[in-house]
Amino acid sequence: IVPVAGLCPQGSYGIQDSLRSGFTSVKNELLPSHPLELSEKNFVLNQDKMNFSTLRNIQGLHAPLKLQMEYRAARQIQRLPFLQSSNLALDTLRGSDDTIGFEDILSDPAQSETMGEPHMMVEYKLGLL
Amino acid sequence: KWSVIMPTLIRSVGTNIPRVSKFRGISDGVILGADTRATDDMVVADKNCRKIHHIAPRIYCCGAGVAADAEIATQMMASNVELHTLNTGRPPLVAMVTRQLKQMLFRYQGHMGSSVIVGGVDVTGAHLYSVYPHGSYDKLPFLTMGSGAAAAVSVFEDRFKANMELDEAKRLVRDAITAGIFCDLGSGSNVDLCVITAAGAEYLRGYDRPAGKGKREGQYRYKPGTTPVLTKTQTPLSLDVVYETVQMMDTE
């Protein structure tokens, strides 16, 4: 198992945001706890990377550029942070609107037992917090 | 040509479904067979489980290995095939099911422990594929998988012929699964068959029950008085009251 160091902390200014994501633990961030953890965490990213680089080789730089521009636009179509977004445009672009994977079956946000605190989440998103 | 597949039983950690399935391909169809025993290490967890899963009207799947993994894999395949059919307006191909299955299993690098035999009839004909947990697949006239694979494939190797008749093919599949049931501890109970032709699929649950519970031939209880009593001694124990306490119960 290859240790992976330097995983980006989630907080702003590049340091650990203890208020929101808890204390850091070097061991947790150094070694993955399952052989497939890193592979699964980055699966979509790696797939996109591979597809985009193939597309660039075949059709030229404009093809992945245009597609990524569309992805970024579609990713911004969201509801308020504590509500669940359908991501319909994003799904259609990716082609995942006609496949079913584990992400559709397990951990359905509509059936989660907890909900984020609405005011805090909106304030955090607007940067007021 | 008749192709045969035989899913066999596989023992794995947790509840696994050993499967013995045989599949025979016929010139215009395939026959899938399986046993019905699910084991949890050395204990039979389910003596009549279903190992042949429906994917599409003319594509069925026998799953061996870890029961939950095989179940969820086949269910997801069925859902994706249905979506694909609705999307394209065309009936699915067996190769499509195999491809999606192997891509998913390879993604999980063998941690999803389900070996699957996919068989069916589509517009291009009858096909039989086996997919292993790490994502490799084979396309052959007959296949077996699971812990009873060796027992079952031996029957196939002996008697398989191309272009068999339907009854002969069903008998061969039944015999191969029965070989697994008797010669492998991970397989047992009944034989399930699924005959898929261009006309449709026929799921014969409990096609044969070779391993039924035997009938007791005689009485095994001893009659009272079988063991003669030779001597009898009685020793009374004289006990004296040494200490006596009374404790009131709290009845309020």
From TrEMBL, chain A:
Keywords: Chaperone. Pfam families: UMP1 (PF05348). InterPro entries: Ump1 (IPR008012). GO terms for cellular component: cytoplasm; nucleus. GO terms for biological process: proteasome assembly. Belongs to the POMP/UMP1 family. This is Proteasome maturation protein.
From TrEMBL, chain B:
One of its GO terms (molecular function) is threonine-type endopeptidase activity. PROSITE patterns: PROTEASOME_BETA_2. GO terms for cellular component: cytoplasm; nucleus; proteasome core complex. Residues 213-246 form the Proteasome beta subunit C-terminal domain. The keyword Cytoplasm applies. GO terms for biological process: proteolysis involved in protein catabolic process. InterPro entries: Ntn_hydrolases_N, Proteasome_bsu_C, Proteasome_sua/b, Proteasome_suB-type. Its EC number is 3.4.25.1. Its main location: nucleus. Keywords: Cytoplasm, Hydrolase, Nucleus, Protease, Proteasome, Threonine protease. It comes from the Eukaryota. This is proteasome endopeptidase complex. The lineage of its organism: Eukaryota, Metazoa, Chordata, Craniata, Vertebrata.
